[in-house]
Amino acid sequence: MGAKPRRATAGAPVSAEELRQTIVSFVESCSDPVIVEAGEKPIAIQPGRYVLEAGGAGCLLHVWGEEGNLVRRISAVERQERGRLDLQARTFGKGKLTLSLVERAHRGSAFDRDSAPLRFRERFRRLLRREFPDWNIEQLSSAADLEHTLSPLYSRAVLAAGHQAWAVIAASDELDAASADRTLTFGLIWLDHLRRRAEHRVFHGLKIFLPRAAARNTAPRLSFLNHHVCQYEVYGFDRRGDLSKLDENDHGNLATELTPCLPAAPSIEPVRTWLRLLAEVPGAGRVSRADGLVSLRVRGIQFALAGRGIMTAGLERQEPVSEQSFARVMQLARELSRFRSAHAADTQNPLYRRHPESWLESSVRSRLHVVDGDLMPNPVYSQVPAVAGDERGIIDLLTCSRQGRLALLELKASEDVHLPLQGLDYWMRVHWHLKRGNFSSRGYFPGVELRPDPPRLLLVSPAFHFHPSTETILRYFSPQVEVERVGLSAEWRSEIKVVFRRKGAERLA
């Protein structure tokens, strides 16, 4: 009796017959096997409905059924694990690809999560072929590239025709809304990466493909990018594959709201006394809100609200304060002051680590003249106008210069690649309301004649926490968006010191 062929293992060179035996053994070990190829429906592998023949440097696999028909030449085992066998394959017109043989019962969320980007990538390939038949599709990938800050959440490619080319990026309709809205950041990084590597090609610009809702949010941003540096096109698609190009000048769907700014109501007893006592706690401060209420905070954490003759307090849930419960409010404020201090003994305490952007806001508010000596210390508004539908993790401050020019500050305590475009989102909304005279008509900046000049945008962060791609992205901003990066010292919790200022995409020395 001849020796039994050894099973193929991932990465090991094997004969065609050994490769065939590995595939047959896997199929026979499954109760309900299916074959999965990115972008295609899974096809059940049933007895009498598949053929696997060894020959040459691999095996020819033919599978057919109600779900479809598939013929592929298998060249190697890529990976094998319980319930799953990944195979290297080749087919005419697609070159190399990966197939997966999977036990249907094991096609759980992990497998679906891993294969979702591949499925979308192949859908996107077909869309590009249909819409741009005269262009070659190159470098189509959704692989992560941490060195160049390229996320695996997005499919990216090159459309090329001779020496002419476009950078292309797309977000799947399976992504959440926040991730889809961030596509432009990675698109600009991808474009810049291609331009720096290009030797014999001219990259005209960037084409962005998004689900319709995300495309409508992204299109207005293009009006404030530099069209002398790059061309931009944004397309919206639906699940049927219908595609439409959006007009960047359509601001009709700009998600913004500017609620009226109400004057603060005079405090009455006993709230007036409570406010005075709480203000004596080290680190405690009062911030007037646009709704007329007073927010009481210790280094950025709000612990009480006062106004219209009442006070509420609490960290997780606000409850009414009474004469009997005020002592507990004082205790809470003192506890925050002790744990949320630059000199705290326990820097791992949750109160110390909570909401670092809010702490940074508190520090910047109290030393606004250090950040920029031309800014008025009052009034300073936070989170107006509202940016709807995005958990930004960033604090926005709006103020103006002594000459009446609006200035908005984006504050971030940790590295964030999206900081420039989040700043642009806020700038767009402030600019939109400024042009319509909404700030003055709705009670903001009383007694100040606001200038019509476009607002200034200040990106404020600890110096070593600006993402390396920040300069790259700012290179593509329109000159009308006047941006300044303000780098703070690492000891910003104890004292605000500016260690560098850079205009726009100006590089650090």
Describe the structure.
- The protein has a 7-stranded antiparallel beta sheet with strand order 2-1-7-6-5-4-3, with helices on one face.
- It is α+β, with helices and mostly antiparallel strands.
- The chain folds into 4 domains: 91 residues, Protein Yojf, Chain: A (Distorted Sandwich), CATH 2.70.180; 141 residues, 3-Layer(aba) Sandwich (Trna Endonuclease, Chain: A, domain 1); 76 residues; 149 residues, Trna Endonuclease, Chain: A, domain 1.
Main attributes of the structure:
509 residues; six-stranded mixed sheet; Trna Endonuclease, Chain: A, domain 1; 30% strand; alpha+beta
SSE inventory with pairings:
Blueprint: H1 16-29, E1 33-37, E2 43-44, E3 50-55, E4 58-65, E5 68-81, E6 84-91, E7 95-103, H2 109-131, E8 136-141, E9 154-161, E10 164-171, H3 177-181, H4 183-197, E11 202-211, H5 212-218, E12 231-237, E13 243-245, E14 256-257, H6 271-279, E15 284-288, E16 294-298, E17 301-307, E18 310-313, E19 319-320, H7 326-339, H8 350-353, H9 356-366, H10 368-371, E20 381-382, E21 386-387, E22 395-400, E23 406-411, H11 419-435, H12 438-441, E24 456-462, H13 470-474, E25 482-488, E26 498-503
Parallel strand pairs: 10-11, 11-12, 23-24, 24-25
Antiparallel strand pairs: 1-2, 1-7, 3-4, 4-5, 5-6, 6-7, 8-9, 9-10, 12-13, 14-21, 15-16, 16-17, 17-18, 18-19, 20-22, 22-23, 25-26
